[in-house]
Specification:
By secondary structure, the chain is of the alpha+beta class. It contains 7 helices and 8 strands; from the N terminus they run βββαααβββββαααα.
Length: 215
């Protein structure tokens, strides 16, 4: 009764299985779809932009939380949140989103990831935002995510310094001159920032860093 997205991080492919909830997205529920990406953009494009951003922060915190615990324990945790998503009538409706990792790689890294989508049956009006949580699926312990403490230290002091200059509209050539480093070094730092924050461009990087209180 869910929509499940199984992502293979090693091959950069995803397998989208649509159960009955697939009707919410106007999906074909007779089989599954393979895409050459670990991001299900057709679904992401239907999520409210603010909730999509908050979900990104939740997943970033989750990923860095998992990196700090033994590989054997990582598969015991999942995220849970609610997100506003366009339904088949093109109206925003809160739905339930969950994610977890199914397998580690032979090197001990994360390999197979699963995202689940379904109707949100708990519709408490007192809750604000996406109500993001990291849940221990063995003990039931739930950790509310609001301070992003596991992302602390994600960027180096130099990367934060460069990102602060980028946020002021300063270009790489001028950053290199101000910090007395080569433009290649600046560009390498910029690429590292995008990879660590899992974003596509500097605008997204600045917004994410501000939300994580780096700037």
């Amino acid at each position: 009764n869910w929509v499940a997205v199984l992502s293979d991080l090693a091959s950069n492919k995803s397998y989208i299985f649509a159960g009955n909830f697939g009707r919410f997205f106007d999906m074909d529920i007779s089989g599954y779809t393979i895409i050459d990406s670990i991001w299900e953009d057709d679904i992401y494009n239907r999520i409210h932009p603010n909730d999509l951003f908050q979900r990104h922060l939740l997943e970033l915190e989750f990923f860095n939380f998992l990196k700090k615990i033994p590989p054997g324990e990582r598969l015991h945790y999942a995220t849970k949140c609610r997100i506003r998503t366009l339904n088949s009538n093109n109206n925003f409706q809160y739905i339930l989103h969950r994610s977890f990792y199914l397998k580690n790689s032979s090197e001990g890294g994360l390999w197979l990831a699963v995202c689940l989508y379904n109707y949100l049956f708990d519709k408490s009006g007192a809750i604000t935002g996406i109500d993001g949580k990291i849940v221990n699926t063995v003990t039931g312990e739930s950790i509310s995510v609001d301070t992003y403490e596991n992302c602390a230290g994600l960027l180096t002091s130099r990367e934060i310094e460069i990102l602060a200059l980028i946020s002021k509209g300063i270009i790489s050539k001028e950053i290199a001159a101000e910090l007395n480093i080569s433009i290649n070094t600046v560009n390498r730092h910029r690429q590292n920032i995008l990879e660590k924050l899992n974003v596509n461009n500097s605008i997204e990087a600045v917004r994410t860093a501000e939300a994580l209180n780096f700037l």
